[in-house]
């Protein structure tokens, strides 16, 4: 499976808590993001443990597109339409450049941040866990 192909205009919160931050980068709706030490939203990545934020309370999904300095609404729990097709029962993790990828696609040395589980073809239930460790190899 590949990363969820997000249509930003279709990203929507189903339920859960939303917090609004200032964006520290150009963010697109549907990206996995984290809040940096200055309180700004940044694009999440699986390339480094620090790129995923420190603790699951600092990671979420951007619900709107925002340029640097603009407000960005971040969903930190609950369910959302990822703006693309999810697989029911599939675990999704943070990919590169804020992408949402199936856990099967994580490669060795990439850091594992679980985002949630597909509960319908158009919904992912968040259950964020920032592991802080890299995968030992391909996860299956």
Word description of this protein:
The protein has 140 residues and is mainly β. The protein has one domain (11-140). The protein is 0% helix and 42% strand. It contains no helices and 11 strands. The strands form 2 sheets. It has a 6-stranded antiparallel sheet, with no helix packed on it. Strands 2-4-3-5-6 form a 5-stranded mixed β-barrel. A hairpin with an 8-residue loop joins strand 5 (59-62) and strand 6 (71-75).
Distance between the termini: 12 Å
Number of strands: 11
Largest sheet: 6 strands, antiparallel
Give helix and strand order, one letter per element, not per position.
EEEEEEEEEEE
Q: Which structural category do the helix and sheet elements fall into?
A: mainly beta
The residue ranges in which pLDDT falls below 50 over 5 or more consecutive positions are none
Return the average pLDDT rounded to an integer. Answer: 89
What is the count of DSSP helices, taking H or I runs of 4+ residues?
Answer: 0
Considering DSSP H and I runs of 4 or more, what fraction of the residues is helical?
A: under 10%
The structural domain count equals 1
Strand order of the largest sheet: 1-7-11-10-8-9
